[in-house]
């Protein structure tokens, strides 16, 4: 079995790490806030005190971090993982980050004699815990083949989209559509609540009709019950939409709908919902 390291034990990384242990990999974990590793250590994971220490001896190193800044810090910071990576290792960034950062990280990785896959995921807290994520992968066939047993332990599907950076691009397109749908649902549900319609009947029509999607199904109920326990942090979705707008602009596409939707997310952050679930984007809409 390969030695695997995982950097980042938040909502997603924690579930991913648990599945790697369950699958029998020798696992080293690192998290900036080390207490988040306690349960995994009890299950047999080794705790590293720096990313560089975690990467030492690992043939596969995975990161699952908040954004470009966090990924940069953990890979190339003073105690960054690249300092410990062995030649021939495969590095996998599963965070939702910008393609520009992935291109830079791929270059730095090859200078260390290693190879990078970008492999962001679809699925949320529950899919991460259940090993049912979908990986959107960019990188070489060779690296993906070597990483596949590890990715399989965390996923139901692995899609190879092309060269390094392809996964990051696809993920931003995916989350742009998700962000717009969640923001438009916030407006639609607020409208339903003020319209005199029976809310449950109205939502049932939306869920089972053309606008229905797994996202609408999950988020509508959380908006109705005001259950904002975190599946996906509102601040992270806002980050994804900003990255998407900038990436699309580079292809000459202006994401007007993303800009409008992001306005709702920024308003929610201003009201203190940044560390709540994305469903809380409805709160400032309800207040107007
Ligand atoms: P999260 O729970 O907020 O975890 C973020 C992780 O990044 C934590 O390990 C955190 O460490 C670390 N981190 C943040 N800033 C850092 C810094 N400056 N230096 C070092 N470490 C830092 O987020 P998540 O939900 O697991 O998401 C992780 C990634 O997956 C994000 O890119 C997100 O957009 C993406 N994603 C999330 C979902 C979802 O539904 N949650 C779905 C698909 C993709 P601490 O614990 O010390 O704060």
What key phrases describe this protein's structure?
288 residues, alpha/beta, Rossmann fold, N-(1-d-carboxylethyl)-l-norvaline Dehydrogenase, domain 2, 6-stranded parallel β-sheet, 3-stranded mixed β-sheet, 13 helices, binds NADP nicotinamide-adenine-dinucleotide phosphate
Radius of gyration: 20 Å
Main pleated-sheet profile: 6 strands, parallel
Bound molecules: NADP nicotinamide-adenine-dinucleotide phosphate
**Which range best describes the helical content: under 10%, 10-25%, 25-40%, 40-55%, 55-70% or over 70%?**
40-55%
Number of strands: 9
The domain tally reads 2
Q: State the fourth-level CATH superfamily of the largest domain.
A: NAD(P)-binding Rossmann-like Domain
Order of helices and strands: EHEHEHEHEHEEHEHEHHHHHH
- The backbone outline, from C-alpha atoms, is globular
Identify the strand order in the major beta sheet. Answer: 3-2-1-4-5-6
CATH fold-type name of the largest domain: Rossmann fold
